[in-house]
C-alpha cells in the first residue's frame, strides 16, 4: 500500500517568545491537505508537541483520516516542553503550573489565532495530552472554560489534587472528554512515584460522571507508552472531528 499521499501536508516549526515563561517555546504547526487561508479550521492543541508529532504520528494519522475517512480538516498546534520542567508545568501542584496555563491561554491562543485561520469558539478548540499532558489539559479547561471545553486524555495522570478540583465544581455538563486508559497501566513509575493509573482514571471517571460531564471512557489492553496511544489517536480525533 502506498502511504506517500499521507505525507502531502505541511508542518511548520515556529517559536513563541513568552513573557509569562520568560523563554522561547517551540511550536509545531500542522496544516492539513488542501489548506486554504480563506477557510477556517478547528484546532487541536497538543501538550508534549514533539512527542505527539514524532511518536504519536498525529500528522500522518490526521491526514489519513481526512483523505480516507472524510474527517473534517483541522490544524494541529504542538507545544514542545523541556523534560526537566515538564512536571513543574503540567502537574497541578507544580511551581510553574499556573504560569504555564497563563502562557497557554493568554499568549499561545492569541498568537495562533492571529496567524492561522483557526476558529475561536471553544467547541472548535480541542486540548490533547498524554499522562501529565492530559492532566494539564483538563486543568486548562477547568480554569479557562470560556476558551476550552473539549479534552483528549491519553492515560491521564489524574490524582487526588485533580479530583479535588473536580469536586469543587457543581456542574460539568459543559465539558466533553475522551478518556483512554490502558489496562496494563496498574503499576506505572513516574517522577512523583508509582501509580495504578487504571484505578486513578476509574475514580476520576466516577467524579466526572457525577458532575454530568460529557464523557467517552475507554479501557483497552495497553501500556503507558506511545506505542499504545499512537494506535488510538485516530479514534480520539474522530470522536471530536467526525
Automatic annotation (TrEMBL):
Instruction: Enumerate the Pfam families for this protein.
Output: Esterase
Sorted keywords for this record are: Hydrolase
Q: Which domain of life is it from?
A: Bacteria
Q: Please list the GO terms describing molecular function.
A: hydrolase activity
| Keyword Hydrolase assigned | yes
* Claim: Ribosomal protein is one of the keywords in the record: no
The record ties this protein, via PANTHER family, to: ENTEROCHELIN ESTERASE-RELATED, IRON(III) ENTEROBACTIN ESTERASE
Q: Report what the protein is called.
A: Alpha/beta hydrolase
Amino acid at each position: 500500500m502506498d502511504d506517500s499521499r499521507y505525507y502531502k501536508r505541511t508542518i511548520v516549526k515556529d517559536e513563541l517568545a513568552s513573557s509569562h515563561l520568560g523563554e522561547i517555546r517551540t511550536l509545531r504547526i500542522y496544516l492539513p491537505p488542501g489548506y486554504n487561508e480563506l477557510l477556517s479550521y478547528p484546532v487541536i492543541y497538543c501538550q508534549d508537541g514533539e512527542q505527539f508529532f514524532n511518536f504519536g504520528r498525529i500528522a500522518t494519522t490526521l491526514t489519513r483520516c481526512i483523505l480516507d475517512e472524510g474527517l473534517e480538516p483541522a490544524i494541529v498546534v504542538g507545544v514542545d516542553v523541556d523534560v526537566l520542567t515538564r512536571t513543574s508545568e503540567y502537574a497541578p501542584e507544580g511551581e510553574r503550573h499556573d504560569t504555564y496555563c497563563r502562557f497557554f491561554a493568554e499568549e499561545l491562543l492569541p498568537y495562533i489565532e492571529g496567524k492561522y485561520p483557526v476558529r475561536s469558539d471553544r467547541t472548535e478548540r480541542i486540548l490533547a495530552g498524554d499522562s501529565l499532558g492530559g492532566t494539564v489539559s483538563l486543568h486548562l479547561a477547568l480554569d479557562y472554560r470560556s476558551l476550552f471545553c473539549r479534552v483528549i486524555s491519553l492515560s491521564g495522570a489524574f490524582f487526588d489534587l485533580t479530583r479535588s478540583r473536580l469536586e469543587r465544581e457543581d456542574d460539568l455538563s459543559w465539558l466533553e472528554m475522551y478518556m483512554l486508559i490502558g489496562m496494563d497501566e496498574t503499576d506505572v513509575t513516574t517522577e512523583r512515584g508509582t501509580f495504578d493509573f487504571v484505578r486513578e482514571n476509574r475514580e476520576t471517571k466516577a467524579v466526572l460522571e457525577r458532575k454530568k460531564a460529557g464523557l467517552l471512557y475507554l479501557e483497552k489492553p495497553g501500556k503507558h507508552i506511545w506505542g499504545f496511544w499512537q494506535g488510538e489517536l485516530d479514534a480520539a480525533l474522530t470522536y471530536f472531528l467526525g
